[in-house]
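User: Round two. Same drill as before: sequence, then structure, for each protein.

Assistant: Same drill it is. First protein:
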Amino acid sequence: MVEMSVLGPADVRRALAAADCADIEIRFFAESTATAPQAAAAIGCELGQIIKSLAFLIAGEPCLVLMGGDGQVEERTLAAQYGVGRKRVRAANAAQCVEIFGYAPGAVPPVGLRCEVPVWLDEGLRRYGVLYAAGGAPNAIFGIFRARLERLCGEVGAAGQSRYLAMRRS
């Protein structure tokens, strides 16, 4: 098996620039921002404003769920989007995160992934105008207006299907 290189903040910057978002600045912190509570503390925002980019394999197919920091993915909800049982929904492990998505867990951004995958957004993200996402390293974050995030990720998917899913709040 060939070991895949880990992508980083420079890859996120390139993806943002290619999407006409070169003005978005990735901020770096001395402390880790790999978890939602760490990121919220570093930025000084509400936990729900932090985007947890969670990598999943559904019936073997990769997807990314952009979850508010105060929410939890409901596997049944995600499985229903693919017409499979919840037991077919699996969180990607660390090696799969790097191999498929390009980044280590805690550093996965919503853009600049190794390959194109469906992206689902947590309905709870609609509560905020400004959100904060991982910037490709466990100490890197960028702020983004929700409307820009929707444009980057596609608020509506194939056949007009909404990319927003209702998930559980903590």
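Second protein:
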Amino acid sequence: MLIGVFNKAIGSTTALRKTTKEFLSQKDLDLSSDQMELQIVYHERKPSLKNAPPYVSLSHSANIIACVVAECQVGIDVEFMVERNFVELSKRYFSKTIADNREFYEYWTAGEAMSKRTDVPLVKVLKSGFFAPFRHVPIFPNLIVTISTERNFDENISVLDFYSNFSSNKSFTIYCPIENA
């Protein structure tokens, strides 16, 4: 599994294409340049790859695009954490009341990642309170990235080429190995 986080200025298609190419190169696939021009198609606003085997998911928040490429069904959500009335929001959307900033965003992003992975409506996922398996990926304090997959996660997550300056077109990629089912 490979997660890429980019400045929104590069666009969703470019972010998915870059992350997918890196994912495929990590698999040592001998692809011609024609095959590397991956076609991203959207069905009901959900991205998929027309001519490549991996699964993909995409999320936006403020000036960030986060995408994930995996060999199994996967969902991703990214959120900048800001202060809100979490008690009221959690009463409206969740099966429990949450007042803590980080807990609210962890719950929300887990639900949104699961919704993207399973195609179950977000409100239904949030009310159910069941999001497993998922993993929060620490990037920096006010940004939360959560991924949901149909497989269990390996405990090791490493970061490659981390750049925290999102005003540029620099990006970083997170390698997140998962256990084989």
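Residues 155-173, 175-181 have pLDDT under 50 and may be disordered.

User: Perfect.
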